[in-house]
Write a structure and sequence with these properties.
This protein is of the alpha/beta class and about 90 residues long. It is about 40% helix and about 25% strand.
Length: about 90
């Protein structure tokens, strides 16, 4: 099972909301994955198959070894589905 790590600046409210939206998107796609959320600093030491978050912070995780998904609108379930679908 794939692991998706939802990342935000502080790892609090916005990443929790994104996590719920990712789970909703997965359900709508008929896919399963382990989904959790964290802050940007912690994400740098975490392992996951997919790292997902807002465009403005995800560049900080890009090191060439991670699969990064950037969102323009972290509340947009159709955007989450569109960007995750090819990776699942």
């Amino acid at each position: 099972m794939k692991k998706i790590l939802v990342v935000c600046g502080n790892g609090l409210g916005s990443s929790f909301i994104m996590e719920m939206n990712v789970k909703k998107a997965l359900t709508e796609l008929g896919k399963e994955a382990e989904v959790s959320h964290t802050d940007l600093a912690s994400a740098k030491t975490e392992t996951a198959d997919i790292f997902l978050g807002a465009e403005d912070i995800m560049g900080n995780l890009e090191d060439g070894s991670r699969t990064i998904v950037t969102l323009q609108n972290v509340m947009n379930v159709p955007e989450i589905k569109e960007k995750l679908s090819p990776l699942l």
